Amino acid sequence: MTETTPYDADRARFTRQALARLVLCDHAVAVADGAAALVATGNDPDTGPGGRVSQAFQLIELAERALVSAVTYERERGSSWAEIGRYLGIGPAEAEERFAADLDGWNTAFDVPYRLDDTGRKRVPQLPTAAYDPVWACDRLDTWAGNRLTLVNDEHPVSSGLVMAAPKP
Fold it and tell me: What is the Cα–Cα distance from 96 to 17, expressed in whole angstroms?
């Protein structure tokens, strides 16, 4: 299924590196928001036994997604498996093996933008939402960062640092 997507023109303005960075930003927001939910104590009586453990465990899952996104971003910006492995405390071959399926999925999503759902009737985007619709992601992430990162004095704290594609002649 290789039909075009409604966001192809918008996405073409971004490099794959920028799209990978947006996905990493989006996953980092999920981790930050998940961690923030553990800070306030007022709702503790409403949480059943083990509830806070469940929330903390979910942070691990969110962090794992952020790690995969970080590896994808690093590969898109040219980092070697040796450089990535060094930060993970593993060798380059082990790092490549650990993330190979995730990177294959990332690469395939650019060639096959959709898959059919279980009914075979609905198209489901293969790219993460932040990469599929980067204009929306930039607006949302710039707003999130502007509201929460008090020491950042930038009107577009996320989108201003992205490596954009060269304009087509």
Answer: 18
pLDDT computed for residue 68 by the predictor = 98
Give one word for 72, left, alpha or beta, with left for phi > 0 and alpha for psi -120 to 50: alpha
Spatial CA neighbour of 28 closest among 16, 39, 38, 36: 36
In terms of Cα–Cα distance, which of 109, 111, 142 is closest to 128? 109
What are the residues whose beta carbons fall under 8 Å from the beta carbon of 48, sequence distance 6 or more?
A: none
Instruction: List pLDDT tens digits, range 84-138.
Output: 999 999 999 999 999 999 999 999 998 888 888 999 888 888 999 999 999 999 9
- Give phi and psi for 38, each to the nearest 5: -85, -10
The predicted structure's pLDDT at residue 103: 98
Which residues touch 164 (CB under 8 Å, ≥6 apart)? 13, 14, 15, 18
Q: Is 166 helix (H, G, I), strand (E, B) or coil?
A: coil
What pLDDT was estimated at residue 33? 95
Which of 66, 95, 63 shows the shortest CA–CA distance to 79?
A: 95
Nearest to 127 by CA among 101, 107, 98: 107
